[in-house]
Amino acid sequence: MASVTGLEGIVAAETELSFVDGEKGLLIYRGHEAKELALQTSFEEAAYLLWNGKLPGDEELIHFRAQWKAHRVLPAALKAIIDQLPAKSDMMSVLRTAISAEGAADGTSRAWPPQPEAALRYTAMLSVIIAYRYRQTEGLPPVEPHPELDHVANYLYMLTGKLPKQAHVKALTTYFILAMEHGMNASTFAGRVVLSTQSDMASALCASIGAMKGPLHGGAPSEVVHMLDEIETKERAEMWLRQQLSSGQRLMGFGHRIYKTFDPRAEALRIITTGLAAEDPWFELATLVESVAVNLLHEFKPGRKLYTNVEFYAAAVLRAVSMPKTLFTPTFTAARMVGWTAHLLEQASCNRIFRPQSVYVGTIPG
Ligand code: CMC
């Protein structure tokens, strides 16, 4: 049988966008520690940094915020396409279809290289698409964007129709910044491969959204909630986790290709969630499950260095801000749009088509 490498350890590109030190548990965005940015800046400022290479000055930020808000409107033709999708369509498929439709409609599908304005437009639009579709499937009337609110607060507002609590905006902003970029992960790589053929940004984003959807990548947080729902009580935790591992199942929210220690994003999200949900019995159960799971992973997979990853506490934060479970992966996607589009712009600036090789291990005729 062919040996499966998953391209582990292969360098696919040079990037100025982020650095992940898996041994030390360090994540840097363009020279700034992501954890610090997450606690101190707005999502808009962090996005500006990734797209432009520096944090914005006061005037630049005012202009940038205004540009961002101007892109929150969904064209009527796009809404009509979303409206036609069956109610049973999952949200990630809706997002992939909507970005594809918008790419077909905007007339830039053959433009090369992709422009920074498109990065902002698709990012601003994606959260609005999620809110529009979510309310539609819930039988609720759509909510117009709030002109005073920034991206993350506006996302919560458009989902619920209510002004969000400040603590929820703060927690979700932390999550958005920590989730926005993470080096050459599967979805980013998928997008860069498509763009390297001199294809357009929408096509590349469709590939990224498709990759993000899988449970081994962006689909993990809702699986974490599912796991905790099944465990139900603290008393059942060890037995349930042991059974999973004994039958060869993976525990969602644990393990990472790069991090061989605690994922720094998980640590920052745990701090935020503790402040929000310390009294919540679900969170108490999550904390217990985490420590039992890490011990059992060491017992079942000695030497594998399996620790909690970002998705475990992403689930906790998203639950604490009352995000519906069906929107966990879409919300991760809304944040990651910044990283994807930054990578696409970077790929275009130094492009060479990706063309790895495979080793034929089949039979040769004759
Ligand atoms: N539970 C149990 N065993 C695990 C887990 C886990 N969560 N993760 C890895 N292992 C085992 C795996 O079975 C293998 O054991 P063995 O060598 O005995 O066959 C060993 O650890 C090494 O695993 P691997 O398959 O080489 O790991 P990978 O780098 O290919 O996969 C991963 C990384 C994240 C897909 C994997 O750890 C996993 O499936 N985790 C659960 C899903 C999850 O939480 N995904 C979110 C990842 S963080 C968001 C992101 O960056 O995308």
From TrEMBL:
PROSITE patterns named in the record: CITRATE_SYNTHASE (PS00480)
Keyword Cell membrane belongs to the record = no
| Active site residues according to the UniProt entry | 256, 311
List the record's Gene Ontology CC terms alphabetically.
cytosol
GO biological-process terms attached to the record: carbohydrate metabolic process; tricarboxylic acid cycle
Q: Check the record and name the InterPro entries matching this protein.
A: Citrate_synth-like_lrg_a-sub, Citrate_synth-like_sm_a-sub, Citrate_synthase, Citrate_synthase_AS, Citrate_synthase_bac-typ, Citrate_synthase_sf
Write out the catalysed reaction: oxaloacetate + acetyl-CoA + H2O = citrate + CoA + H(+)
> GO: which molecular function terms?
citrate synthase activity
- Biological pathway: Carbohydrate metabolism; tricarboxylic acid cycle
Q: Which NCBIfam families match?
A: PRK12350.1
UniProt-recorded name of the protein: Citrate synthase
User: Native species of this protein?
Assistant: Paenibacillus sedimenti
Source taxonomy lineage? Answer: Bacteria, Bacillati, Bacillota, Bacilli, Bacillales
